[in-house]
Amino acid sequence: MHNMHQSVNSINARGAFASHMHMMHDLCMNLKHIRAARKMSQRELAALAGVDQSTIQRAETMHHTAKLDTYKLCAQVLGVTLEDIFAEDRDVAEIALVRAYRNADERGRRLLMKLAEEAAALPPEHDE
Questions:
Q1: What is the pLDDT of residues 81-125, one digit of tens each?
Q2: What is each CA distance from 62 to 28, 30, 69, in whole angstroms?
Q3: Can you list the pairs that 39-45 forms with residues at least 24 positions away whose Cβ atoms lie under 8 Å?
Q4: Global pTM?
Q5: CA angle (99, 78, 55) in 5-degree steps
Q6: CA 73, CA 77: separation in Å to the nearest integer?
């Protein structure tokens, strides 16, 4: 939030804060998307994390009472990092690719990079 304070004066502070909170809410929606991609309900995630379903609901909606520990528990249960939960624009496939790269040895990383370069060089497909 520090950057927000540098560009905000008292006249537009409410709007800037609302905009910042909307962006943060969108980021937390990653938790919901990751959970859903694993075909897991809030109730199931809550049981595995050892918390109430309402705790998961608050985390997914970034309620002001949501705690960082809840996000840590969810990340652990879902097999992702906090960075994955709060990433701006990663979908589940991107998260899996990043995780594969991070867990690979040097040979595996070279192979992943080669595949990425080849994929990037492919011409776009056209529906016919």
A1: 888 888 766 677 877 888 888 889 999 999 999 998 998 898 988
A2: 6, 11, 13
A3: 40/78, 45/74, 45/77, 45/78
A4: 0.54
A5: 140
A6: 6
